DNA sequence: CGCCAGTTTGACAGCCATCAATGGGGGTGG
DNA sequence: CCACCCCCATTGATGGCTGTCAAACTGGCG
């Protein structure tokens, strides 16, 4: 982990390809916060549990962060997947022991401590409004994932999961995107076995719903409407 | 649906049995908001989609509210279940068409419109802090449900689902609680078939994990630790 | 009494978790 | 440079679980 300054931030995230308008507002928000914000650069497989220490909220400026928990059975369950522009709450004294982990080669995160967050409404009310909007977006993201997990068949789960991922990663319809996680991560996120994930993806490829250049490079074809059993 | 005033509120919710300390803070919060709050009493199966109209956030003072969506296939999926003291976000211009529905005989809800919510940090900063805490609790609730849905076996899902429900409904360990929803609702919430829900509950009853006086009255025995395959 | 919604149980086919094995790619050390 | 190892992805085989269809039972209500 490496602390970075606001001044060095633009040099880092400017490189991020295909930034959407919504992401720019997050970068602007980060700059406007000034000294209240803490930035950090991480590398693959870094464990960033320390991010929770001072509470408040965090967000992702580049890369992908996984929020996970290890069950008594030893199984890892991924509760949330945060990508560029996504916010997440940092709850101290949470009896549930969550871990945060980087799943991309590199990631840049930002956060504000709880004490700075609660003083924000008086000092910068419009920034607080932005925080509230983003927190509601976090709720939407979790709700979407509940809908994905609620699908009965594994092919449906994977199809809707990948579809969500693609719309988040690229505005362009049908463009190839680089999956920010392994098959194992997908399995632990949707709650099915790795082998079933692999089989489901192979099945979708055969049916022409997705195309794979490499196992990590995926393009969605809008063929879902042609396959009513996937809805 | 019936509008009720703040003055009549105490007569309604005071009757709610087994109120926990956390719930009292919600009632206090409701009173302190004054004119900004809108109260409503509903009856079973009422559709309260109109609650979203002015945005902002809502919360439950008594009864149970379901947030659901109808898929193209005609299936109903329950995304969230809000009980006494639970908050939920009311997002206008959400492309996803959610419905809100009462699953108990009666329910009382409260809400603040978006315009009142965004002016709250300047007028009553400590109330806004409370809103933020509750919004984070909403995130925790959804995360917990993702963990429930992530379980592989249906008996595990039902066991952890009912366990969560009981700890939320009663502080007393092992006390019988009245389930605020039907087997169909449970099925649509955890994403399995009704018959499987029924079979799983019967299975748990045979193994001594739960006890049922009536199909709706349930008591958890802390026997889960005796059954390692349920963790 | 008949109807209806909710719950439960049975039978069965299809799907999925598990175990097992193979192949590919990137890294390290010889 | 090559051998080796490890992680990841994929495919096969199989038993067990679950979705689906069907039917019976309950309690409430007109």
Descriptive notes:
The structure is a homodimer of 231-residue chains. Chain A has 231 residues and is of the alpha+beta class. Chain A folds into 2 domains: 2-142, Jelly Rolls (Sandwich), CATH 2.60.120.10; 151-230, Winged helix-like DNA-binding domain superfamily/Winged helix DNA-binding domain (Arc Repressor Mutant, subunit A), CATH 1.10.10.10. Chain A is built from 7 helices and 11 strands. In chain A, the strands form 3 sheets. Chain A has a 5-stranded antiparallel beta sheet with strand order 1-2-8-3-6. In chain A, strands 5-4-7 form a 3-stranded antiparallel beta sheet. Chain A has a 3-stranded antiparallel beta sheet with strand order 9-11-10. In chain A, strand 4 and strand 5 (76-82) form a beta hairpin. In chain A, helix 6 crosses helix 7 (194-206). The mean pLDDT of chain A is 89. The interface between A and B is large, with 41 and 41 residues. The first copy, chain A, binds a DNA duplex (30 and 30 nucleotides) through residues 152-154, 182-184, 192-199, 201-202, 215.
Give a brief rundown of this model.
By secondary structure, chain A is an alpha+beta fold. Chain A contains seven helices and eleven strands.
Topology:
The structure is a homodimer of 231-residue chains.
Chain A: E1 2-4, H1 6-13, H2 21-33, E2 37-43, E3 57-62, E4 65-70, E5 76-82, E6 87-89, E7 99-102, E8 106-112, H3 114-123, H4 125-150, H5 154-169, E9 176-178, H6 183-190, H7 194-206, E10 210-212, E11 217-220
Antiparallel strand pairs in A: 1-2, 2-8, 3-6, 3-8, 4-5, 4-7, 9-11, 10-11
Helix pairs in contact in A: 3-4, 4-5, 5-7, 6-7
The structure holds a DNA duplex (30 and 30 nucleotides).
């Amino acid at each position: 982990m490496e602390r970075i300054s606001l001044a060095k931030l633009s040099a880092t995230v400017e490189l991020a390809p295909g930034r959407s308008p919504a992401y720019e507002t997050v970068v602007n928000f980060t700059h406007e916060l000034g000294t209240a914000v803490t930035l950090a650069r991480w590398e693959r497989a870094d464990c960033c549990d320390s991010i929770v220490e001072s509470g408040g909220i965090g967000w992702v400026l580049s890369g992908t962060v996984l929020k996970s928990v290890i069950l008594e059975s030893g199984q890892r369950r991924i509760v949330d997947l945060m990508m560029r522009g996504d916010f997440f709450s940092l709850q101290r004294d949470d009896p549930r022991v969550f871990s945060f982990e980087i799943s991309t080669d590199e990631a840049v995160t930002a956060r504000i401590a709880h004490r700075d967050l609660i003083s924000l409404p008086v000092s910068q009310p419009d920034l607080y409004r932005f925080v509230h909007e983003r927190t509601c977006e976090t709720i939407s993201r979790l709700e979407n994932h509940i809908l994905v997990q609620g699908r009965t068949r594994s092919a449906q789960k994977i199809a809707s999961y990948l579809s969500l991922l693609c719309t988040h990663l690229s505005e362009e319809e049908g463009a190839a995107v680089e999956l920010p996680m392994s098959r194992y991560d997908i399995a632990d996120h949707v709650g099915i076995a790795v082998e079933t994930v692999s089989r489901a993806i192979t099945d979708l490829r055969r049916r022409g719903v997705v195309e794979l250049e490499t196992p990590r490079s995926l393009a969605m074809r809008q063929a879902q409407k042609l396959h009513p059993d996937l809805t």
